[in-house]
Fold these 4 entries.
Entry 1:
Amino acid sequence: MELSFKRYDKDTMLHYVGNVLIVLSIANIVPTVFALLFEESLAFKLLMVFETIIIYVIGYMLSRQYQPGSVGLVEAMTIMVFAFLLPPFMMLFPLLTKGVDLIDALFEGVSSITTTGLSCLPPSAMDPTVDFLRSYYQWIGGLGIAFFTLTVLVPPGSAAYNIYLAHLGKIRISPLSRKNVIEILKIYSVLTFSAFITYLVLGMNIYSAVINALTTVSTGGFSTYAIFPSNLLPIVTLFMFISAQPLVTYYMLLKYRRGRIFSPQLVSFTIGVLIGSILLSMASGIPLMKSIFETVSAASTTGYTALNLADSNDLTRFVLVILMLSGACLGSTGGGIKQLRIIILVKSFVRHIKRTLAPRGTILPIKVSGEIIQDDDIKLAYNLLFVYLLVLVVSTLIFMMYGYSLSSSLFETASALATTGLSVGVSSWQLAVPLKIVLIIDMWLGRVEIIPFIIVFYNLFYK
């Protein structure tokens, strides 16, 4: 029997892509103003201005010319995929004026919007304007371009719900409304401002406080510190931990639903951090505070470091790889496989053991927070894990073919796929172009979570 797939409504897709472009152009005003106010080349300034105007005009024309129809989950996934595909090209052209290679500029754009934090910029291209541009796009990417589109331009209803669901998964706010979404945006902004003020109090200058606040709350990783000083570790650890939790958790806190705050994801993440900190301290011999900082940085997929990871041993790298891959909580700005899926996989394994021992016909549902997890969700978690590990293995093998060790290859590709940004020194402007392309693909797939991309690609090109 021949399979048939729903065709996309061209008008609907072009309308929402136009909306994404409008949001991107509005978001681009901030770094454009920053470039105009600070010392910067005329070419850089002109490109930022023209780019903002042109993208807005194209987006406006598309959104006005094409009228949207109904938006299903697949269409919402398509919009999300495009929302993370377009921003890197907005960063690309300004970076080219700095003499940056085309692939390096694309690498930096993808690393920014996916909140990874790996970098291939040559030292000569680094200046305050570029640093702010990268960090700002990490902040935008942390919340999600799809989420911004929903907030500003998409009216409440089925389309808004489906786009929201595509980006944040099964964590829902009911009823979903623009008011609720704006509340979450406010929370994200308040967390960022709180980090900024705290960093100022700790002694950072204004510029450094801005950069690190943007990249902490977005779990992005670009920082003004190559290695964080000891006096900053406790408070930065706290903000990374907070940012690794679902944004809706803080929405619930404001609504005084305290019973919803201590979720299985929070418990799972905390247990992982505690175990990881002990193992990392034993593996590397570093003080416990540094170990906790490094563990939270890896597990939240922020990517800050207090160590020279290039000199780390294989056991230290292995512990950090496990933490990066397990990732933050579903619904947060972090990456990785996500804690909720880890919980589902563990509960599924335990159920399998119980079923083997129980009488035939025994019903053993899997529950999380009192909710029964459907078999389709369990299968999805297994499928994602399989594809995730497959991409990781292939990427690692490619790096090893270029002469890198197993531990270095696994660490760098795991960091890209989990959108973490920790590096053992492999990622740089001197890296071979094919390997840069591998990391670009890993970062992008890690952010859109692979399966949505496969669904979109398959549905677009299936004949």
Note: The beta strands are 367-368, 371-372.
Entry 2:
Amino acid sequence: MVVILSRAFVHTHDFAGVPAVLARVKYGGSFRVTTRIPATKRPGRYGVTGRCGGGNLGFLKHLTVRR
């Protein structure tokens, strides 16, 4: 299971107080997940990171919320 974290996400799941979405890892290490950004989320740039197996996946991407 991969945990994708961003303060932009809906707060259905969380990791250390940060909203998260969960994705199953496929054979070969790929994963895919979709989520919705709450309409109440303020416009801005939000970081997206991931964790798997108790460790950080080592990436930081950004998404932009616009109105």
Note: The two ends are 32 Å apart (CA to CA).
Entry 3:
Amino acid sequence: MNAEREFIKLDQFLKLAQIAETGGQAKYLIQSGFITVNGAVEKRRGRKLYHGDTVEAEGETLQVLIEE
């Protein structure tokens, strides 16, 4: 297995998933406590997400899928 797993940062994921239109909007959602990662509120926009993590935002539950 690769020692360095592929990841995406939480703010980038929110933009890619079209939950946030801009980095500023993603930052606001995260720092305001509106985002959970694997069931826990996450307030770090640089949080690394890995394949299989779940993100809940705006009433939607999304799963992180990273192809290697």
Note: The chain has one domain: 8-63.
Entry 4:
Amino acid sequence: MKSRDSAVRLKRFEANEKACKVADLEHMIREFEQMAVDLDRQISAEEDRTGVKDIAHFNYSTFAKAADQRRANLRASIEGLVAKLDAAVRERDAAQADLDAVMTSEPRELERGRRRPERVAGIVMR
């Protein structure tokens, strides 16, 4: 019975860790998306302020260029995090399935646990 309890605790811990990882990745993606939106606003404001909207123009704002590069980096990071999130969701679902399998095996384990002491003693009582 103790080994089953340990297995259940281990599977529950693993499932919780995977769920936390998914939540963390989702939170990071939301934060990065918000930062990219903020950079969009800053770039628009800078372009309106300077009157130059063509990034190839020699008089384009260096602040807007730098913000554009940061926004591109954030979007690349978001794409990478989305890929990690997909993998983490699959791992979380697998861990939850393992936990469910261990939890549903309880009745069989209880029946085995009741029979074992009788067999260990060498007496089969039915």
Note: The chain has one domain: 2-114.
